[in-house]
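Hey, I'm writing a tutorial for new members on how sequence and structure tokens pair up, and I'd like a real worked example in the thread rather than a made-up one. If someone can provide the structure for the chain below, I'll link this post from the tutorial.
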Amino acid sequence: MGTKVKKVRIKNLKKKRALALEIIERLKKAYPDSDCTLNYNEAWKLLVSVRLAAQCTDARVNVVVEGLYEKFPTIEALADAEVSAIERIVRPCGLGHSKARDINACMKMLRDEFDGKVPDDFKALLSLPGVGRKSANLIMGDVFGKPAIVTDTHCIRLTNRMGLVDNVKEPKKVEMILWELIPPEEGNQFCHRLVDHGREICTARTKPYCDRCCLADICKKQI
């Protein structure tokens, strides 16, 4: 599948796998239509949006990219653009210079080394400027329909609270644990549902609404 590395040792593996399956089924019922909240109609546009989404809301990114694509509508246009011109448009997303630099370099690499196409290989995705494991997994899952575990802040926070992960906050380590617990075909949508659940119920900035949670009776509530 391209995303897995070495296996990790997990205490109570059998119980945690059973808990994971129950959580998956309940979240499916609660959030049957969960999907990526970044707007895109081409794979390269999702790459751009994911880079802009770092420390920024998806809603703001969806607005900003409209102006970006109006001025630079293709991979070639962004590759040929001055970094400063990209930066002026994406500045509302924060970290404008570094994001503009990465987007420009990424589009140049797609143009020059990948024939203008986003690769469907995990290692190749990681070779692109500004693309880390989270972004690569999102592309693998949402664009190519391949097994993926996207360890964003919601995923890390909720899997620790639920007891699937035991006080592990490093994204890659959480990802490796979840590969052992979540069936490969469920991983991508499971992570999208965690985002919805984290926004609506198991919130970060307020006390979680455990009284309305579909997982209340099985969650470890490690808050």
